[in-house]
């Protein structure tokens, strides 16, 4: 089954990320079986998939941490296999487990990274990022005293040192409380406002709805749907209850797609959209 919504006209610049026919297996386990997608520059792209769908596998290949078996992938115009060093200079991966040093302050963490990445004015780089991520008040406190949301924001800020054009956030809000999630979402919007391209992986449908310009659903080794939220919604006619029109949520769309394996879903013959509970 495959659904591909037409790309909006006007997106003719070389994409920030291009993935074609990507395959990856771990021994017998065929995790990626021909993954294709593009991420336009300056956009937020959500790779949506259940636990174990292969999201981290995709982002580890894009970050050159893992070798692909077949297919191709490029970041910022550079091939992940043939030009790995240039890819590494173009992309920053923030994992779901914050990589900050608890003993140091937020400012010290940022300065440390700025030194490692050979920034000329590490203190100024740190201070700018502290302002951008609303951490100035907590700048000189040890990270051990930070809330989960503050820690994740600092982690994202650290990944921005040196201004990589592409940022990958692998499930950035896993384990965060609702308030901290909102703070991280705000931090992601901040990134986009600066023109950074963001590839976001998530299991949370509302997170993709909130943040992403385009959403791709990774399921059984392939991207089975790819479009803007509006385009994905258009694939499924709105459910109607008496005279009140109800738009299907992204979760309705997702559940309808993944529960309909082996069938081609088109706008003309969409399966009934199931009512679904909120995943939180
Ligand atoms: N190093 C590995 N060796 C063997 N299996 C792995 C390895 N890494 C991931 N897997 C398996 O590959 C599948 C996809 O994993 P992953 O990419 O982490 O999914 P996601 O990030 O979507 O949860 C899972 O079934 C996982 O158990
Ligand atoms: Mg993962």
UniProtKB/TrEMBL annotation:
Family in the record: Belongs to the ABC transporter superfamily.
Protein name: ABC transporter related
Listed GO CC annotations: plasma membrane
GO molecular-function term, one example from the UniProt record: ATP binding
Membrane topology of this protein: Peripheral membrane protein
Residue span, ABC transporter domain: 17-245
Transmembrane domains' residue ranges: none
Record key words, sorted: Antibiotic resistance, ATP-binding, Nucleotide-binding, Transport
Main subcellular localisation: membrane
GO biological process entries: response to antibiotic
Record-linked Pfam families: ABC_tran
Coiled coil regions, renumbered to chain: none
Compartment list: Cell membrane
Gene3D superfamilies per UniProt: P-loop containing nucleotide triphosphate hydrolases
